[in-house]
Each structure stands twice: as structure tokens, then as C-alpha cells.
Design a protein that fits this description.
heterodimer, A: 6-stranded parallel beta barrel, 24 strands, 56% strand, B: 255 residues, mainly alpha, 10 helices, 0% strand
Chain lengths: 339, 255
């Protein structure tokens, strides 16, 4: 959702508030230990090729796995303090021609319903999956259809996604291992880390406020990664004509380069250091220690910013930190030293 | 930054060319002439550096051009076209929300001032290049630098007003959120505040430092974004609207 939509939602939500009845404060759930009663739910529905699953939950963990077949198998466990409360929470499964929608419904007229619902769902591997929850962890694996996973409070873990669109949370980590997309993919957390491994996409946007952003073995031609207080690291091939923008306020910014791919570098830090294992031909920024351009003199000054090129200057690296260090690490050399 | 106050007689004309270069519209035939002038005129070099810094700072600001949907929603509200049942419990929030939204739009206007090319520049530049009398109306370098500072100050002021409005809304509605989530959001707003404070201190020490300026506006932008998302989340939580909650999830963590 872009900023336009978000602002519209804010204004529209305010306009709708007056007519909204007071409803259950469904986030004020008891800790799991206090939820003594359980109730199981199972349902299997067909989902033809090209179909998709939408799952909306409020509280509880969700596991969705892609597998063989043409059915959606939904297993859920409701947890609550009393059997009466469990009955008040319904799991609605709606099927359309190409879409299955699963939604947890809480009673509108009652407050303090302390019921959570854990879902374990199997979908056809090619199905599209959109999962959203307010409080709970999301685990999604081996899904080749378009995948979007969003939680407010909980970790989001994605493994083996063929067409990942987004993975976001407010309070929790976003962890992705093995994902692809023909378009742009966005990852975000407010308080947690964003950790991506083996992700291949056209563009990657990854943000956190207080967490780090770690992009390992990420193949794409556009990266925009930001954090306020966390470190940002990128390791992956640098595409010719690609643009890689990494920005942290108080964290460090590190690019692990392969030592072969050329890039143009625009780097800056207000009070940190800039260093590079690779010999960068500096357009400005001054010479530093050991002949490394961009090494910031302790007295401050021109080393705070550097603009230069390595090899053919094919990719563009825009690296910025306020108080953190900016580093270009020669991955190949580091690996050789390690060995 | 040291600046010469006595400008060369041709500086007015070259100032226009400097503008063109920074805007990326300089006639290639004039490049060499401008470079030659810059080599022997520290004042125009300083102007070019300042304009480049301004452009850099403006580029770091969010693209907050007012959008039709936002205007439509606001104008509907202001015209009373939205059926709003008067319930005291929400009145304060709605008013503050509208105020905050308006302030955010005020930020847009300010940022637009910063980002948009000054319409008067082109004809001035043309006249200056032709050696016409309009060269005399080009702002002095000192005025331009003051303008930059003033625009940055105004932009920050609008951001701070927007933030204050949004914070008021959040304060009034935070109880709708799970306490742990509310604490997480507050903690992260604090992290952004810290970043803004550090940036301000850096600007105090080095007023023309582009990195420090960009860093401050990035922090302010992030704070506005996180507060907007928090307000949106509070609203859907209050309504208990699951669909709304799910919808908002798409944007809430994109600060």
C-alpha cells in the first residue's frame, strides 16, 4: 500500500468512526498460558489452477505450505479461556470460482474475547496466497503463486517463494530464505530485523526503524534499504545499470562486493568512517590511509563524502550513514583470508 | 561558507547559468564559458555549491505532492458531505485528524516549493543570457542562500506541526492498541526522535552540511510516516473492523 492509499485510509477511517459500534478489543488477548480451552476446526475445499487463498486472522500463528493437489486443507485450533468464548469466534470459509477466503470472525457486540486461532493450511503449490494477521507469527513455505504476508505483531518467515510480493510486520522480524519475483518486492519491520537470503527480484525495498537490514545473496537491479538505528548489509551481484541505495542513521552500511563488478560510488557519513577494500578512483573525497580513497580524516572534512568509481562503474551504489561507518568489503578477498 | 560580497559585473548572468546547470538545463555551448568563469570567481563557485546542496537536500525530502484522493476526502469532510453522526467520544479525534492531515498537506506545499523549479527563473535566465536588463532582477547570492535556509526552516516547521497534530491523535487513541504494540511504536518513535536530535546538533555545528540536512528531513519524514500508520492502525482497531485491520497491514510497516 503506498502513501496515497494510507492517507486515504486514515481520513476515511476517521469519517467512518462515528458510525462504528464499540466492538471487541480483540488485541487484548491473554497470554497463551491462560487459554485453557481448545476447539479444533478442519475443512477442505477445492482450488483450481490459478486460484488463490486469502487468510485474515486476528490472533494466532499461521503456517501455510504449498504442496501437491488442487485443494486447500484448513486445520485450525481455537484457544480460549472458556468453551463459551470459543463458540463466539467463528472461522468463515468462503469459496469462489478461483478464490478461497478464510476469515476469523469475532462477535461485534462483545468486548474482551480472549480467543486466538492457530491455522495450519496446505495449498496447491502454484496458488496465490495472501495472509494477514494482527497478532501472530506467519510461516509460509514452498508457494509458487503470488505471495504477500503481513502481520502487526509477530515474525514473518518465508521459505521458497516463487513470486513474493511483500513480507511485513510492525513488531517482529522478517526472515526470507529463497524467494523470487519478476517485479519489486517489499520487506518491512518497525522494530525487528529484515533478513533476506537468496532472493532474486527486479527490485527490493527493505526498511526497518530500529532493526537491521541484512541482504545476503540478493540478486536484483534495484535495492532501496533503510534503517534508523540498525546496520544495513548487502551482498550480491551488482548489475550493470543497477542502483543500490543503502541508508542508515546510526547503523553501519556495508556492501560485500565480488571484486569484479564495477560500480560508481556515492557515499557519505557525517561522523563515521568510509573505507573500501577495493581501489576506488575518486572524483572527490580525498585520499586516505593506505591509499584508500574516502577514508575520513579524524579531523573531519572532505573524507565524509566520496564519489568515485571501481572498474567500469557499471552499477551505482549510494551509501549513506549519519554516525555509522560505510564500508565496501571485497568478499572474495575476505573469503580467501578466512580460508 | 565564505562568500565574496562584491560580485563581478557578469556574475548576474553567470548566476543564471549556474541555476541552469544545477537544474540540468544548461546549454552545452555555454558549459565552457561558465567553467572558465567559475574557475576565477569564488562567489559563483559558492553559489553553485549552495544550489547543489539545496537540490540534494530537496531530493532527500519525500514526494508529498498533494493528491486528488486526499483533497477529495478532506473537502468532503469539510463540506459536511460525509454523514458523520455527532458522537462526543470521537469528535476530538476527528478534528485533530483533519488538522493533522491538513498539516501534512502543508508539508507537501512546502516541499513542492523546495522541489519545484522556480517558474520565474527561466525567463530571467533567458534575458540574462541575452544580456538584457532582466539580469538586474536576479536575486543576489546572499538572498538565494537565505532563501534556501528559509525554505528548509519552513519545511521543518511544517513537519513539526504535522508531527504535533499526529502525536495528539495518537495520544488520544493509543489505548485502542495492544499495550506491547503501543510500547513498541513509542520506542521506535523515540529512535527516530533521537536521529532527528543528532541531525539538528550536526546542523548547528555545520549549518551547510548536506548530509546532516538530509538526515534531519529523513528522520522527520519517517516520523510522519510512522505516526500516520499508527493513527490508521488505531482507527481500525477502535472500529474492530477486521477487514480494515487487514487492509492497513499493507501499509503500516512501510515507514
Amino acid at each position: 500500500m503506498n502513501r496515497t492509499h494510507r492517507l486515504v485510509v486514515v481520513v476515511a477511517a476517521a469519517a467512518l468512526l462515528a458510525s462504528a459500534p464499540a466492538r471487541a478489543s480483540w488485541l487484548a488477548a491473554d497470554p497463551p498460558g491462560d487459554q485453557q480451552q481448545t476447539e479444533k476446526f478442519s475443512k477442505t475445499v477445492p482450488l483450481p489452477k490459478g486460484g488463490s487463498l486469502d487468510l485474515w486472522n486476528i490472533s494466532g500463528d499461521i503456517v501455510v505450505t504449498g504442496g501437491a493437489g488442487d485443494q486447500v486443507v484448513i486445520d485450525a485450533v481455537k484457544r480460549g479461556r472458556t468453551a463459551e468464548e470459543l463458540k463466539l469466534v467463528e472461522i468463515e470459509v468462503t469459496t469462489g470460482a478461483t478464490r478461497v477466503e478464510v476469515r476469523t470472525q469475532y462477535p461485534r457486540e462483545r468486548r474482551n474475547i480472549n480467543v486466538s486461532v492457530d491455522f495450519t493450511v496446505t495449498v496447491p503449490r502454484a496458488a496465490g496466497v495472501r495472509v494477514r494477521t494482527v497478532s501472530g507469527n506467519l510461516k509460509l513455505s514452498t508457494i509458487d503463486g503470488v505471495l504477500a504476508a503481513e502481520s502487526v505483531s509477530g515474525d514473518v518467515t518465508v521459505t521458497g517463494a516463487g513470486q513474493l510480493e511483500s513480507a511485513k510486520t510492525v513488531s517482529g522480524n522478517v526472515m526470507v530464505d529463497g524467494a523470487a519475483s519478476e517485479g519489486d518486492v517489499s520487506f518491512a519491520s518497525v522494530s525487528g530485523d529484515v533478513r533476506l537470503k537468496a532472493v532474486k527480484a527486479r527490485g527490493v525495498e527493505a526498511n526497518s526503524v530500529s532493526g537491521g537490514v541484512d541482504l545476503a545473496d540478493v540478486t536484483c537491479s534495484r535495492v532501496a534499504a533503510k534503517s534508523v538505528s540498525g546496520d544495513i548489509a548487502f551482498a550480491g551481484p551488482l548489475a550493470k545499470g543497477g542502483r543500490y541505495s543503502l541508508q542508515s542513521h546510526s547503523g553501519g552500511v556495508t556492501v560485500y562486493a565480488d571484486g569484479k563488478s564495477g560500480f560508481e560510488l556515492a557515499a557519505g557519513t557525517f561522523s563515521g568512517d568510509i573505507s573500501s577494500d577495493l581501489k576506488i578512483v575518486s572524483a572527490f573525497g580525498g585520499e586516505g590511509e593506505r591509499g584508500q580513497p574516502g577514508r575520513r580524516p579524524k579531523s573531519g572534512g572532505p573524507g565524509q563524502r566520496i564519489h568515485g568509481t571501481f572498474a567500469d562503474g557499471g552499477a551505482f551504489l549510494e551509501l549513506s550513514a549519519f554516525s555509522g561507518d560505510v564500508k565496501i568489503v571485497n568478499k572474495a578477498a575476505a573469503k580467501a583470508v578466512k580460508q | 561558507m565564505e562568500r565574496q560580497t562584491t560580485a563581478d559585473a557578469d556574475c548576474g548572468r553567470f548566476a543564471a547559468l549556474v541555476h541552469d546547470r544545477v537544474d540540468g538545463t544548461l546549454d552545452p555551448d555555454l558549459q565552457e564559458e561558465l567553467d572558465a568563469h567559475l574557475r576565477q570567481c569564488p562567489s559563483c563557485r559558492a553559489l553553485e555549491a549552495d544550489l547543489a546542496a539545496m537540490k540534494g537536500a530537496a531530493a532527500a525530502l519525500p514526494d508529498y505532492t498533494p493528491r486528488a484522493e486526499v483533497w477529495a476526502a478532506l473537502s468532503q469532510r469539510l463540506a459536511g458531505e460525509v454523514a458523520v453522526r455527532p458522537r462526543q467520544v470521537w469528535t476530538g479525534t476527528r478534528v485533530a485528524l483533519a488538522m493533522a492531515a491538513t498539516l501534512v498537506l502543508a508539508v507537501s506545499a512546502s516541499v513542492w516549493l523546495l522541489r519545484g523549479p522556480a517558474p520565474a527563473q527561466a525567463p530571467q535566465a533567458s534575458a540574462a543570457q541575452a544580456g538584457g536588463p532582466a539580469a538586474g532582477v536576479i536575486q543576489s547570492k546572499e538572498d538565494l542562500v537565505q532563501d534556501v535556509d528559509e525554505h528548509l526552516r519552513i519545511a521543518e516547521e511544517h513537519y513539526l506541526k504535522a508531527i504535533a497534530g499526529l502525536e495528539q491523535v495518537v495520544k488520544g487513541g493509543e489505548s485502542a492498541l495492544d499495550p506491547a504494540l503501543a510500547a513498541t511504536l513509542q520506542r521506535n518513535l523515540g529512535v527516530i526522535d533521537q536521529a532527528a536530535t543528532e541531525s539538528r546538533e550536526a546542523i548547528k555545528a555545520q549549518p551547510n552540511n548536506q548530509l546532516a540536512q538530509a538526515s534531519l528531513f529523513e528522520a522527520l519524514r519517517q516520523k510522519v510516516a510512522l505516526l500516520e500508520d499508527t493513527v490508521a492502525l488505531i482507527n481500525v482497531m477502535r472500529k474492530g473492523d477486521q477487514a480494515g485491520a487487514a487492509r492497513i497491514l499493507g501499509g503500516v510497516s512501510k515507514s
